[in-house]
Amino acid sequence: MALASGVRFPARALLRPWSLLRDTTLGRSEPAAGGGGGGDGARLFGSQRVLVEPDAASGVAVMKFRNPPVNSLSLELLTELVISLEKVENDKTFRGVILTSACPRVFSAGLDLTELCGRNPAHYTEYWKAVQELWLRTYLSSLVLVAAINGACPAGGCIIALACDCRVLADNPKYHIGLNETLLGITTPFWLKDTYVNTIGHRASEQALQLGSLFPPSEALQVGLVDQVVPEDQVLSTALSEMARWLAVPDHARQLTKTMMRKATADRLLRQRDADIQNFVSFICRDSIQKSLQVYLEKLRQRKG
Ligand SMILES: CCC/C=C/C(=O)SCCNC(=O)CCNC(=O)[C@H](O)C(C)(C)COP(=O)([O-])OP(=O)([O-])OC[C@H]1O[C@@H](n2cnc3c(N)ncnc32)[C@H](O)[C@@H]1OP(=O)([O-])[O-]
């Protein structure tokens, strides 16, 4: 399937992309988890790893990642996220999406390191295309996207949050956010660097990217990486209030303005997607990089418990 941004998607998702979704009809299926009342807001659809709670009345869908234990961005999760976003985007009932986690304490642990270690170039190519696709799909979305960050948000988690229009982070000192790639011995691609610069400025990005800084909530707010820090139990309600503020603006004017602000950054990647993939694949295939990633993954495993 060639998606809006021109990328071909993994063959296994392409055969029947909608088969990844349990219920492709809005407003059908099971009742909402947590009981939140009747009406359209209580209907769910989604896929194995992405739960979507649409509220047709308000035009907002809450999209929850559920890839336990830490919502690492496996190829499957990336694919399901893109498909779910596309589905909501194509349904004119919706004007906004809140992205959040269904896994306790973690928004997303970022790229799935098992996808980056010990695989072959064809796999890395497919995987990186999916990473690019998710970023393009979120960054260029005509919907209002609000990140309700209810857990740790390193690396790829931060990438998703950065692509949103607004970020609300839970006030828990353990919930760090940032691009820590250098600590794994890898580098951030130029288009994510650009997004960082667009969000927190050049000097702060230069420092944070080189140091692989992960910011606790108060510092993330101070540097402008998030827009609000609120008590954990208020993350979703605050995200909904933020959403209402953004949706109060006429869509066409807001969308044109968003495009005007983001197009140059996205175009830089769109112009050189293949080169970016080749770059990534040759980088990740290096013995030294594979070794660093394996050491990092092993440390993560040992840290456990
Ligand atoms: C190229 C440039 C762009 C982007 C790059 C990236 O995103 S690179 C990504 C950079 N990301 C990071 O640097 C974040 C690394 N992760 C963390 O810092 C922490 O896991 C946490 C703070 C997210 C959650 O803490 P917590 O105490 O709640 O959880 P826990 O730590 O006990 O882990 C539970 C299980 O999950 C496993 N696992 C964890 N992460 C990953 C992963 N990304 N992948 C795969 N697996 C992962 C972990 O090994 C363990 O597995 P086990 O032993 O059960 O088989």
From TrEMBL:
Localisation: Mitochondrion matrix
Record keyword Lipid metabolism present: yes
Matching CDD domains: crotonase-like
The entry's keywords: Acetylation, Fatty acid metabolism, Isomerase, Lipid metabolism, Mitochondrion, Transit peptide
Catalytic activities: (3Z)-decenoyl-CoA = (2E)-decenoyl-CoA; (3Z)-octenoyl-CoA = (2E)-octenoyl-CoA; (3Z)-dodecenoyl-CoA = (2E)-dodecenoyl-CoA; (3Z)-hexenoyl-CoA = (2E)-hexenoyl-CoA
Family, per entry: Belongs to the enoyl-CoA hydratase/isomerase family.
Role according to the record: Key enzyme of fatty acid beta-oxidation. Able to isomerize both 3-cis (3Z) and 3-trans (3E) double bonds into the 2-trans (2E) form in a range of enoyl-CoA species, with a preference for (3Z)-enoyl-CoAs over (3E)-enoyl-CoAs. The catalytic efficiency of this enzyme is not affected by the fatty acyl chain length.
Official protein name in the record: Enoyl-CoA delta isomerase 1, mitochondrial
Organism: Ovis ammon polii
